[in-house]
Protein: Polysaccharide lyase family 1 protein
Organism: Collybiopsis confluens
Amino acid sequence: MASPKDILVSLFFAFGLPLVSALAFPGAVGFGSIATGGTTPFVVTSLADSGTGTFRDAVSVSGRNITFAVSGYINLASPVSLSSSITINGQTAPSPGIGVMGREVSASSKTNIIIRNFRMRQGNLDTDTGKSAFNMGDASNVILDHCSVAYGVFDSIDAVGAVNVTVSNSIVALPIGQQFGAHLETGPATWYRNLWVSAHNRQPLTKANTQYINNIVYNYQAAYTVANTGGDFSHDIINNYFIAGPSTTSAGDDYFQIDANQQAFASGNLLDSNKDGVLNGAAANTIGSAVVLSSPWNPTSQGLATLSAADAYTSVIASVGASPRDQVDAFVISTVQSLGKTGAIITNQASTGLANNGYGTL
């Protein structure tokens, strides 16, 4: 008779289940929950762009567990590259919290990254149109939780070649430039209880085996996307809510470019297409021309889908993003709550009308 260990190993190879002795943090879910982060304490004591005690200094050495003694925006003069085995505990910053603005944060080719309660707001202060708000290309074992990503130029989140990724309880909103949400290839990946707002496309673009559970997508032109040249992948798409807004030209593009090479399990998804200010969606479980799966491709997916699409909307609106909410996230939330009445896909963060050239104040 097979031992429990042998059974777990078999499940890992059959379904891609991570084998871990501990989660990245209590409550972590999905494929990125195996991230180990760092353990060596380091306290950020300055909002300066560089120098002793700065965020750039903090992430320059592997193995650090980073906390914050300061709050506010760190105005980056150049991109910041993370080291491997890093934990960024934004929730430790004094009120009103911590964030970076103006340049890309990159975990490219790194491993074991944990980022929580952190704001990444790129915007047009970055003149490099090939950069994204957060880049984890070719990275592995990465989890973003309760983060707020806005004003991405190339993508909000770029994750080509990324392996074992979770983005959970986060806001991905108001991309400028290409006006794209997230681009992930390789995987596997988990997108869980996120709020996607006012993007042209890629919410996300996923060329990977994917769990997409309890997400809310508002004011999209194209939402969940694979692209017809994306290869052959499996998708668990459960209890998500797609809500049309003023920029939505075709509500039926809630699923976009999903061909017969794909396999999808879809259950409990809703589409509110009428832009009438009331949450009153109808079932939306036809995933392009994908092969229909009768059960989730990953055995953990159904257990993650503890909220209906309607309950996910309530929960996400109440708790998503970095805490406490700043002006940018409050603006995003109020836009979604209009349920079709307000919202725009923008090219410049200043068009939000918020203070500090659209970045808001921290």
In short: The helical segments are 4-15, 55-58, 301-304, 309-319, 327-337.
